[in-house]
């Protein structure tokens, strides 16, 4: 939606975006940018351009694993998985109160305070710990993933884990003190999958088990109750490739074809016994859409020496904008229709490396920087690239850096709450996510010194994302980060 002033106002705003000019067919840069962030050795696997959704597959097998040189974290014992009553198919939670799920609304109904806030904090902490590891790669690499997809899959694994294996999983998820984690996940997934919204957000879970293998009925029932995840029997031992294709077909269906192959070739073999899959699909329209007639090619600064062309969207409208002086950076909230979901964009100043923002960022700071009372509704000139990201990660290495070690080692992994035999270990843990951001909206299947932005220009402040930035797609009511991303290069 364009603000009053029409096309002339839009063109005037474009010309002010960091001294960019419309005099040529492509906008020309007139000044240099700050240096790029330093490169670190860890290399997750970013993918290629695509559309948008997040899917993940996790396989358990009997394949031996080498000893990990990483030290094991201090043993933290999680509370045993809760087995409370609840609806098994709809994800409807552990009873209702005032027409809402009690596990979600206990705070307002006089029950245990801040239940979902605790889960939100745990998921947010996990999301940003993972972001820091992924962002240690080459700063020119883009990053995109769905932390809620990864954490819900790990929580399903936690249902079947015991001993140090369970303790490490609980610790990496920041859930070692949460007694009702599975009921809370049940309530969260029910909230995310509400049918009566103007955006489309769906999560799906499923287990694929070896036909000849016995799995405990309590584990299967708990997965169905809390995560709406059924167990389908496949012949991994005799038809591994056919099983892989069948799993990929299920994920493709759940993500509207945006993720046709979550499990790559040779990721399933005759030793695989159980594959847990989680898929997330999101498609939303901006509350205020960008006008395509103002989208044009502009330079995007990748680093100090390189810039690349990007299709830059523009609009001038009222958005919530804040400034973080300690980084320093700008924070912009772009709501989707109904305002239940938002994209939060964290853009460092020109002279600040994005790696400095990543170094300082924590979930607590992100909450503080984006508090509604600490951001102001202003008439803002917004420049945002139109982009597509597609990324795939093998999470075994990444989770190992966060302390999950035993689960991947045969002989150490303890999944005795999942199956009577003690020879199960995690063999495949992959995550794939895709996002597309355009003029209509997004499609995806993935104490700080903050002051109000002051209006220093005649037509309002400017938010020009023509250099690397972080972005988060957030469920506002649940305070949950659904997708995390870093856009560093077109």
Offer a few descriptive terms.
490 residues, alpha+beta, Alpha-1-antitrypsin, domain 1, Antithrombin, Chain I, domain 2, 11 helices, 24% helix, disordered N terminus, Serpin_sf_1
Q: Any idea what the CATH superfamily of the largest domain is called?
A: Antithrombin, subunit I, domain 2
Backbone shape? elongated
Give the low-pLDDT segments: 1-16, 18-52, 62-113, 447-458
Cα-to-Cα separation, first versus last residue: 25 Å
The amount of helix comes to: 10-25%
Structural class, from secondary structure content? alpha+beta
Number of domains: 2
CATH topology grouping of the largest domain:
Antithrombin, Chain I, domain 2
CATH architectural type of the largest domain: 2-Layer Sandwich
Tell me what the structure shows.
- By secondary structure, this protein is α+β, with helices and mostly antiparallel strands.
- It folds into two domains: 6-41 and 291-387 and 438-487, Alpha-1-antitrypsin, domain 1; 53-284 and 392-436, Antithrombin, subunit I, domain 2 (Antithrombin, Chain I, domain 2, 2-Layer Sandwich), CATH 3.30.497.
- The chain is 24% helix and 29% strand.
- The chain has eleven helices and 19 strands.
- The chain has helices spanning 6-16, 102-105, 115-134, 147-159, 163-172, 181-192, 217-227, 240-254, 354-360, 363-369, 395-401, and strands spanning 53-61, 96-97, 100-101, 143-145, 200-210, 230-234, 272-285, 296-301, 307-324, 329-335, 341-348, 376-385, 387-394, 425-437, 441-444, 450-452, 462-464, 469-475, 480-487.
- The strands form three sheets. Strands 4, 8, 9, 10, 11, 12, 16, 17, 18 and 19 form a ten-stranded mixed beta sheet that branches.
- Helix 7 (217-227) links the parallel strand 5 (200-210) and strand 6.
- Helix 4 (147-159) runs antiparallel to helix 5 (163-172).
- The longest helix is centred in the N-terminal third of the chain and has 20 residues, at 115-134.
- The chain is elongated and about 65 Å long.
- Mean pLDDT is 76; it is low at 1-16, 18-52, 62-113 and 447-458.
